[in-house]
From TrEMBL:
Pfam families: ParE_toxin. The keyword Ion transport does not apply. Keywords: Toxin-antitoxin system. InterPro entries: RelE/ParE_toxin (IPR007712), RelE/ParE_toxin_dom_sf (IPR035093), TA_system_RelE-like_toxin (IPR051803). Belongs to the RelE toxin family. This is Type II toxin-antitoxin system RelE/ParE family toxin.
Amino acid sequence: MKLIWTDPAIADRLTIYDHIDVENPRAAVELDTLFVQAAEHICNHPAMGRNGKIPGTREWVVHRHYLLVYEHIADKVLMLAVIHTARQWPPLLDDDSF
């Protein structure tokens, strides 16, 4: 199974990392590592997440405040977004963040 991080998901990771890094660089590294490890685990078990709020997607809670949104297509797992639980999800129609 091939793991692909989409541009929006990469941007989410960078935003989260940068935000946490200001106060706690070690926690930023640990959380990003958690995201990567969870995504790799999903590649081995793509049906493990719950059905997503957007049709065709799945969601996996990787931390009490974060979830990965992904899509499983053939031999690929596309990481679509990394969502903080306080963030509007799915995005509003006029929100171009997804």
